[in-house]
Amino acid sequence: MNINDRPDVSAEKLQGTVENALNGLKIFNLLKTSIELGIFDFLNEPMSCEQVSNKLGVEPILTYYLLEILAKLGLMDKTGEFYKNSRTAEVFLNSESDYNRNKCILSLEGNVDLWNNLNHTLHGKISREDESFFPEIIQVMAEDCLSGELHDTVDLVADCDEFKSSKTLLDVGGGHGLYSIAFSQMNSDLQCYVFDFPEVLKETQKFIERYNSNVLTIPGNFYKDDFGGSYDMIFSSYNPGGKNPQIAEKIYNSLNLDGLFVNKQYFPEESKNSLGDLLDNMEWNFTNFEKSNKAERRFSFKGDLGFEEYLEFLEGLGFSIIGTHDISHLNTSFGTRSEDKVIIAKKVR
Q1: Structure confidence at residue 328 (pLDDT)
Q2: Most buried in the list 16, 28, 142, 204, measured by CB within 10 Å?
Q3: What pLDDT digit, counting tens, does each position of 284-300 carry?
Q4: Is 210 exposed, middle or buried (0-12, 13-18, 19+ CB in 10 A)?
């Protein structure tokens, strides 16, 4: 080899990829640590770098760069030598805020660990029990929901005449129950029920009490159990059986004639194959649920139907599709998605 011979391809793009990836990891860890240190809790009032340094017990020069980076990210406002939470930080990062997303952000550390130990992760899926996994992430899902997704969804449903006249609503796999709580607040004549695993419902009850709601809970497993009853409206949001034909049939059988079925789900586009999609799908396959059986693409499970197939199946059961709506959702794990759909259907026969 002649040391004066250049390689026939530039390393610039590769180096850029590595640096961008590393900067993303640095920012995540800086934000995570800022939450853990409580920075966004005490910087509702202006403080100097020296004051913050003394409060945290962190070297002044490191405190300075931490605060400057937070300001560059739009999370701090700087006036002279004083730093204060930006409005974004006040709303979404202060732990006293009703809309704080701290658990959402901190929960991503588990995903980071899987990537940091990718050699180990690649050699075997991590198996999770449905009943134990879902209670663990209820708080995360609730924070995510309250950042705007709930409001967009409820506004769509509230425009339906069938919702206004409904007396009973079943929230299948309702988890935190925030949708049922919101629906009952918008229709005082509506009695809402949340159907989910018994261990999940312990967390649901905490939200019901927090909002002083009359929502009731029904323990069960939607893969095994019938829903019973006869409801004017059934709601489903991102539960693992949300695109499964057998679950749809159970919903049909538990719904009154002229009743409303509202289903909010992620329907992956098979043709999408961007770098982000590939990374997301790979991460989805790092783990598996013992009962619900993940499929290969993110947020999909074995037995799921595609979007058009699902609509046709509902119509075959006896539903009329009132409308379908694209609804972007800021998901904690995968960023903003455009493949989220709200399906509103009416049982007509």
Answers
A1: 67
A2: 204
A3: 989 887 666 788 888 88
A4: exposed
